[in-house]
Each structure stands twice: as structure tokens, then as C-alpha cells.
Input
Amino acid sequence: MSDQILYIVISALCFIPAIICHEVAHGFAAYKLGDPTAKQAGRLTLNPLAHIDWFGTVALPAMLALMGGPVFGYAKPVPYNPSYFKDPRKGDLIVGLAGPAANLVLALLAAGLMHLLMPVALGGLLTNTAFSIFYLWFLPSFVLINLYLMFFNLLPIPPLDGSSIFAFFLPMKALPTYYKIQQYSFPIFLVLLFFIPYLFNVNPISLYLNATAGAFGNLLFPF
Output
């Protein structure tokens, strides 16, 4: 198996559970706050088909993997109704943070496993091909993909989580203007993601992810 094919397979095996846990965390947070919308819509399931957005979950990460870049993306936004929350603005913030928080927990767990297995790895088990792929490829990829998802989704651009998190810190009088601007945010995001790198050979999203997820991942790795 070539390194590129192995990278694509491992990226898929890491990305799918990361994005599922991200979305289920959103729905579970809303459910615990009294909103049954996500549960009634079948979004509290680990079935990936319930969460797939064909661009954000399939096309975007596939293109990034084929280009050898960091794999990130998004799934269908979890439906929820803030009117069920005792404090709609606070509830909106909690639901928005739940997905990135789930990815952070998964990244920390995988990094912790890397530290626990390091003595075994240095003891000679790295000569085993399966263990070597798991330890040197899968676990680091799982850490980084979860961190990429976390920081990517924190961008204040709909449909990403950062848009609802950012709204919490705005004064009430600014919200109508912010919601009007939001309708133009996704085209701007596509410009940042594709057209600026093509025209100027500079990728602002990659620079941001390398400075955040990449740097944080390097701090977590035991080597």
C-alpha cells in the first residue's frame, strides 16, 4: 500500500468518528438543556449517515486528503430550538461549544494513549508493522484531525460553530446586523478556502490551522 493511500484510509478512519462525536455532542448538549429537537430528528445516533453533509463531510475532506493537506470539514448542522432553553443565549453558547469540546477530549485521549504506549514502542514493538502504523500514523492523525476539526469549527462563519459562539459575546442590539451579515459569510468562506490560495498562493485557513491545531498537537505528542 502506498503512503498516499495509507494516508487517505487513515484520515477517513479518524475523520468519521471525530465528526460523528462532534455532532452527537451538539445534540446531546441541547437535549440536556431541555430541547428534544435533535433527538426527534435522529441526530443522537452514531450512524454517520445521519450526519453527512456531502460537501463538508465528503467532498471537502476528500479533496484535502488527495492534496496531502490537513483533513477537516463539517457535517450537517444539528437542529435545535433555543426557545426550549431557560437562557437561549447561554444555551446557544453551550451547544456551540459542545462539538469542539468533544473533539478536544478525543484528541487528549489519543495523545494520552500515545504517552502510555511510548515505553512499549521504544521497547521494540515498533518493528511490528501493525503497531507501527497504529502508533506512528493513526494516533497522531487522530489527534491532529480532532484538533483541526475543533479549531476549524471555531471560525465565526456559518454553518460553523464559531458563528453561534461569537454571537454570544455581541450586545443584543448588534445581533440583527450580525445575522444579516451571516447570509454572506459562507461565500466569503469559500473564497478564503479556494480562490485566495489559487490566486495568491497563500492559504489563510491552512495558516490558521497550522498556528492553532498544528502547534497544539506538537505540544501533545510525546516525540
